[in-house]
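Project standup — Tuesday

K.O.: blocked on the structure for the chain from last sprint. Re-posting the sequence here as requested.
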Amino acid sequence: MENSIEKIWEKGNHGSIMKPDFYNRKTSIVYQKINEVMKKDQLLLIPVSIGIISLLLFYKKYDAAIATTIFLGLHYIFNHLIINKLSRLEIGQKSYSFLIEYQKLLKSTVKKYALYMGTVFSGGLSFVFYCVYKETEVFTKIIQNQNLSKILVLVGFIYIILTIISVSFYLLNTKILYWKLLKKIDVLLKEYNESESQL
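H.V.: unblocked you, prediction finished:
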């Protein structure tokens, strides 16, 4: 059924279909696909986390492994709460109104999540980074000299670099995974408006 609706929609030959029913079904398909991608993206975090923690344990960075486990565990829970919120929305009979609100919610979520990645996530990552490298020669010399200004500069530099990497990775990942699906929402809204103007 989904494939047949997809083909009809892509060809633009859906004059024989009742428009409200057609758009409701099309909206449901796009919404379900976005939810599926979000859940698959979330599941990918599990093997990645296991790989990172295993690597830290292999190199006997036990405190870093514990910190990473807690950090990524909380990150997973945070992601799960967001996905739960976005995947439990009711489309109802007014698919156009739903798409407008859903589009706003997605854009708001992306902005808030980018802020989270640039603050909380980067902060947690900085702490893990410290746990991994705290016994290296550079860190040891700075701490031994008790040079507070150098410590602050180093911590600030690391935090800024990790913030740029975290936010950039998130935005790139979002574009790669969701760009086509988000574009479909734009196209669907445009077609909906065009069909209404022809009535």
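K.O.: great, moving the ticket to review. The chain is about 85% helix and 0% strand. The first helix runs from residue 2 to 11.
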